[in-house]
Each structure stands twice: as structure tokens, then as C-alpha cells.
Write a structure and sequence with these properties.
Blueprint: E1 8-14, E2 17-23, H1 32-50, E3 57-64, E4 73-76, E5 83-89, E6 95-101, H2 103-110, E7 115-120
Antiparallel strand pairs: 1-2, 3-4, 3-6, 5-6, 5-7
InterPro entries: Snake_toxin-like_sf
């Protein structure tokens, strides 16, 4: 007699695509070691599916003076940095920078006197 056990499905969203991992538990006979091995394999596949892909990409530069950071490089953000920021500070001296940063930190620059900032969260948006 064949027993059907429920399947485990893990789905994640990575780079705009859905990845699905199916761990089937349908077998003629299950002994304890088979069950344990299947659970371990499912857990490993689930963790791998949750691992982050390449992070957000932001323009990066630092400038003091009037060129306002026109020449930039590309920076790949860490998992903690979920925004790209473009900050211009006019007092006491003029300088600007573009970089990966945490959205809360970036929004803090918006309310800082003497600073002008924009915050965004898509690749190279700054």
C-alpha cells in the first residue's frame, strides 16, 4: 500500500523571480533515517533559497567643492543598506556624496539643516 505524505514547498522572491523548491515525501517505505535525511535536505534547500542574491547597486562618490559628485563608481550595497542616497551639504563647507546607506539614515539627511538629500531604493537610482 502506498502512503502519500504531504510535500513541502518553499518559495522565495529573488531579483524579481520566484524560486520554488519542492521537497517530496512520497515513498513506498519510510524508515527513520530516510525521514531525517529528507528533512535535512529540505532544510538545506530552504536556507539556500532564502539566501540573498546580489544586493542593491548605488552610485558612489565623494566630492568637496563645486563638481557635486559628477564622476561616480558603482557600489554593491550590504544587506543593511537598503537605499541609495545623494546628499549635498552646503554649510559649513560645500561637499556631496552618493552612496549605499540605510533608508532611515538617508531620510535623516533630508531633515538636516544645510543639507539636501534624495533617497531611493532601485539600482543606480542616485
Amino acid at each position: 500500500m502506498r502512503k502519500n505524505f504531504p510535500s513541502t514547498i518553499a518559495a522565495t522572491l529573488k531579483k524579481g523571480k520566484v524560486q520554488v523548491v519542492l521537497c517530496s515525501h512520497n515513498r513506498e517505505r519510510h524508515n527513520e533515517s530516510d525521514k531525517m535525511m529528507n528533512a535535512v535536505v529540505c532544510a538545506v534547500l530552504f536556507v539556500l533559497a532564502l539566501s540573498p542574491g546580489e544586493g542593491l547597486k548605488c552610485k558612489s562618490c565623494y566630492s568637496k567643492g563645486t563638481d557635486l559628485c559628477e564622476q561616480t563608481s558603482v557600489q554593491i550595497c550590504s544587506v543593511l543598506d537598503n537605499a541609495c542616497g545623494d546628499v549635498i551639504i552646503t554649510q559649513p563647507a560645500q561637499y556631496s556624496f552618493r552612496s549605499c546607506m540605510n533608508m532611515a539614515v538617508c531620510q535623516g539627511w533630508i531633515t538636516t539643516p544645510g543639507a539636501f538629500a534624495t533617497c531611493c531604493s532601485t539600482d543606480l537610482c542616485n
